Amino acid sequence: xxxxxxxxxxxxxxxxxxxxxxxxxxxxxxxxxxxxxxxxxxxxxxxxxxxxxxxxxxxxxxxxxxxxxxxxxxxxxxxxxxxxxxxxxxxxxxxxxxxxxxxxxxxxxxxxxxxxxxxxxxxxxxxxxxxxxxxxxxxxxxxxxxxxxxxxxxxxxxxxxxxxxxxxxxxxxxxxxxxxxxxxxxxxxxxxxxxxxxxxxxxxxxxxxxxxxxxxxxxxxxxxxxxxxxxxxxxxxxxxxxxxxxxxxxxxxxxxxxxxxxxxxxxxxxxxxxxxxxxxxxxxxxxxxxxxxxxx
Length: 296
Ligand code: MF3
Ligand code: CO
Ligand code: CO
Known about the structure:
This protein is α+β, with helices and mostly antiparallel strands. 27% of the residues lie in helices and 22% in strands. The chain is built from 5 helices and 15 strands. It has helices spanning 38-46, 53-76, 83-96, 163-180, 189-202; strands at residues 100-101, 114-117, 120-122, 136-145, 148-157, 206-207, 213-215, 222-226, 243-246, 249-251, 257-259, 266-268, 274-276, 279-284, 287-290. The strands form 5 sheets. Strands 1, 2, 4 and 5 form a 4-stranded antiparallel β-sheet that branches. Strands 3-12-11 form a 3-stranded antiparallel β-sheet, with no helix packed on it. Strands 6-10-13 form a 3-stranded antiparallel β-sheet, with helices on one face. Helix 2 (53-76) packs antiparallel against helix 3 and helix 4 (163-180) runs antiparallel to helix 5. The protein is globular and about 70 Å long. The two termini are 30 Å apart. The structure holds 2-amino-4-trifluoromethylsulfanyl-butyric acid and cobalt (II) ion (CO) (2 copies). 2-amino-4-trifluoromethylsulfanyl-butyric acid binds next to strand 4.
């Protein structure tokens, strides 16, 4: 089932069967190679730590709180509301449930959630600017509950959307759906990016390259990186127990971006609209489970 690079083992590397011997001294030339210890191989080769059922249960619980937070914010999103107000609602809900909002003080990030409006691609910092009729806003929520992270985001309309707003939000949502069709053991990280890129480009939109999905667990960002572009069959093979986000950022215009003076806010260089949807996924024996499931 492993393919391409996930199968490449150097002759002097530890044998993938987990014997502790060099590959060349063990299964490399054996008539009947022993089964591969995938968990040990992925830990050593990629620093990817497959999650136990207990760890998944923890992340599932955090995921439910993340979705509850997004649902709460949705009920408050309307013209006149400030992103600081949304931040404070999310922060309070996390606190009320004994959770920690992961962005707060993460690498110096000053707030508890990311709020990315219109041409802001991601990592928008909540402030006192009121939302306006016709805006789009992505709210990106990551909480830590009992040490386990879960990460999800959605883009919403503020009041009545323009045709451009409707288009970019529809395309971004469909990009995540396309990605989900690739989430199964035996497929690769490259298949995910390929599916997203193919759909986005078919709609005349572009894919942001500077920010990627990521492994997640007891840390916010773990290996592997999950680019939202790529070639079919490239990269690491998906195996059961992997947990990572997919979070395509899709621009109505060109893909290029710049970072604002606050060192966080990523903005489309051509100031075109950008939308994003994100979920945290577990690869299972026969496909995937979203740990932050919502309708797209
Ligand atoms: N939640 C974002 C992600 O999807 C990361 C935000 S980092 C922060 O990976 F510091 F800006 F919060
Ligand atoms: Co993420
Ligand atoms: Co996120």
